[in-house]
Design brief:
- By secondary structure, this protein is α+β, with helices and mostly antiparallel strands.
- The protein has 3 helices and 4 strands; from the N terminus they run βαβαββα.
- A 4-stranded mixed sheet has the order 2-1-3-4, with helices on one face.
- The longest helix has 18 residues.
Length: about 100
């Protein structure tokens, strides 16, 4: 089965890596069937077609946090995963 890929996009390398770690922790805590990655490279970010960061690319669809420009926290990412599950974009694995 193919899992959706959630890619954090953030031009700030250190913040992006912290956000990726928070995403990995949130995916594990929520038991979400998804792959989490991140990208902070200028060329990839330019190809995304937005100048608003951070953003989360979910298989080609961009999502933006409510608070613009702020760091994506573990709590915010858990809320985001819950929303994706409610909308049927990701599923929760049985434990």
């Amino acid at each position: 089965m193919k899992y959706p890929t959630l890619c954090i996009l953030d031009p700030d390398k250190d913040r992006c890596l912290r956000e990726e770690a928070a995403l990995d922790a949130a995916i594990a805590a929520r038991g979400v069937a998804a792959n989490g990655i991140s990208n902070f490279g200028a060329c990839h970010l330019a190809r995304v077609g937005t100048r608003e960061f951070p953003a989360i690319d979910v298989d080609g669809t961009l999502f933006f946090p409510r608070e613009k420009g702020g760091e994506l926290t573990y709590e915010a990412l858990c809320d985001f995963l819950d929303m994706l599950a409610r909308k049927g974009i990701v599923r929760i694995l049985p434990r």
